[in-house]
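Dear support,

I submitted the protein below through the web form. The confirmation email said the job was done, but the results page showed an empty box. After a refresh the structure appeared. I'm attaching both so you can tell me whether what I see now is the final result or a partial one.
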Amino acid sequence: MASLFAAILVAPAAYAQSPGVTPQQITLGTILPFSGPASSYSVSGQASIAYFDKINAEGGINGRKIKVISYDDAYSPSKTVEQARKLIESDEVLLLYGTFGTPTNVAIMRYMNAKKVPLLFVVSGGTIFGDYRKSPWTMGFRPSYQSEGQIYAKYILKTKPDAKVAVLYQNDDFGKDHLTGLKAGLEDRASRMIVAEAPYETAEPTIDSQIVRLKASGADVFILFSSNKFSAQALRKSAEIGWDALRILAGASSSVGAVMKTAGFSNVQGVVSATTQKDPDDPQWSDDAGVKRWREFMDKYYPSGDRHDLTVVSGYSTAQILTGILGELGRDITRERVMDVASNLQINQLDMLLPGIQLKTSPTDHYPIEQMQLVKFSGEHWALFGDIIDAGKIAIAD
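What the results page shows now:
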């Protein structure tokens, strides 16, 4: 694993012990929505914890076992703050990783940076998590939501330049960041092409009324910047009311198990999204070595996990990267050195990243993945089409 990393390390003058590190153990923390409206996303963290079980069974990292302390925040920013303080001040973890959600991570980002504790591979494409100037101790994982929104805009302009677009979006930074990118990508045509917008709150039990209103706008493109639960509802409802529109779904909500199957496979044919990961249900990966390793991991260490859920794949990948970072540090592990390595990554392949997609960071680039490929849902899996798109070359709005 360490061979995948090209990291710049400064040799320590002497061994320095950091919070969360003992001669026998490294303690990490994560905060996940085990309950609440985003609970389906918690499987990402569960997969990562299972990956560290695998690492421990194989002897740990440089002689140390990995302990992960995870807490539930129910996707509530105030609870996220409470749990972050507990992890840092009481549990004294080395770092937080894989914490879920845009509004929840925004709530703890200033605190984490003030404490100079790494907040790594945030499970969000919020543009704010790559702002190395304001938050040098924070790093996202997936391409920014603004860049993804612009990718969809370019696709619409190329394939349906006269489209009438309706947008469902979560009324927080997650939905608004996507929407900002979409409008930026449509440029001066945005006000003409976007004929309807409908926000929703995560506390709402259903969004059926929003879908009915959006269809009434006459739109022939329906874009969903919504989380798993509401994406499944919206896809099912739009099919039930006979809305024959091109449907585009945020990549963060493209889980086959949690979204597409829940909505009903017959209701989601032809839906377009974007991804960075191999879909293990795609027949083209049946003999792929990385996918085979992932399946072996699932069989042995996470047998209860949903093999059709790309959120599980994401958790596997973040744990794999973090294992490599900690391995590079040898026996001398401090929070500062963790950030040094995390800020100088160059990984050309991971088991579950699409071929051709690279993971790179620098002290002035905290967006690890900046490439995506469009996918279309066919049968019971996502099918790739087109070329890999470099989202990093798409401007991000301030």
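Response: this is the final, complete result; the empty box was a page-load delay. Confidence is low (pLDDT under 50) at residues 6-14.
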